[in-house]
Amino acid sequence: MLSPAEDKVWRDRAGHDHNVGGAKVSHVFALTDDGHRIHYVDPWLPQDHSYEMSTPAGGRFRAVSLSTGGSTTLVVVNRSGDLHTRLYDFDISGAGKVFFRYSYEDQRGLPEAPDMLAERLDTHYAAIQLPAPDWVRQPRIPGAITDRISVHKTGIGSDARELRVEGSRDGHTGYWAKSLTAEHWDFVATDQPSAGRPLENPAEDRSVDATVPASPYDYRGASAGWSATVTGFDPAVSPTPLTVDLGDGVRLGLILHTVDGLRQTPQDSGITAQPRHFDGTLEVPSEILNSLAAQPASIREFIASRLGGRRFTDTGVTVTDGELRIEGLGVVLNRG
Questions:
Q1: What is the pTM assigned to this prediction?
Q2: Is the dihedral of CA 196, 202, 205, 210 positive or negative?
Q3: By CB distance 3.0 to 4.6 Å, which of 2, 68, 77, 150 could disulfide with 82?
């Protein structure tokens, strides 16, 4: 739970603090699909288990334990002890557009709003920076550990968290602990019997699990004079590469951001025949815009005519197991 009384504020990826909504955020997260997917439910959302957050490594991570505290999620991988944390909930993800103002434009340097109303209405103040904060790989624990983990609130703000992992050192049982942003772990001896399952703890990063397959949802389609391809679309993973072939041997790599927005009715979990609607944003990579004059004429024309010369363009995105529709480009990509 993220609470306006206890936490008061949370910090976005631009470093701005934002007031917690008055209705709190009360999620229950659950590991599913043998640990490589995370679903969540909330009393304000349809109880359909359709909302997800990605696991680390673009969803290629298989977790054995999950603990949450104040919208901070801690995950540990099977047998390898790789620890990742993420600040994430429905509001932080960018899904609460009815109540909050979000932006993919760089919000650094703008002042923080004094209250939620000013933040929502006054564009002189920083909006909530998107995309949402990503997973952070925590430092390797220097000792034996188990899969028994927890996250504890320690004060005001989203960084005020303590991580704990059951383990042992020098013949003593107990737990390893550190604050969320600390570089090193400390051991606290309890000499109580261990309750968790021992994990391997090698030095190398094994976050990517080869047994977790990439998403099979590839889409391709064409419009007048150009075609587009999306590979490995996953409703829980954003952003997704969008490749535009301009028909003259020139390709333009765009970035497709998707947010699973507010719904009033139940939605099937995952990608099915039922249309799933996303709040989408098309991004032109900054290196392309910054060198636009040196780009091929077809790229300059596409960005000017289709994207208005902007770096970010909002668009509806609708996905089924047969097609992916990008409204802002007026194109339908078919599965295959």
A1: 0.94
A2: negative
A3: 77
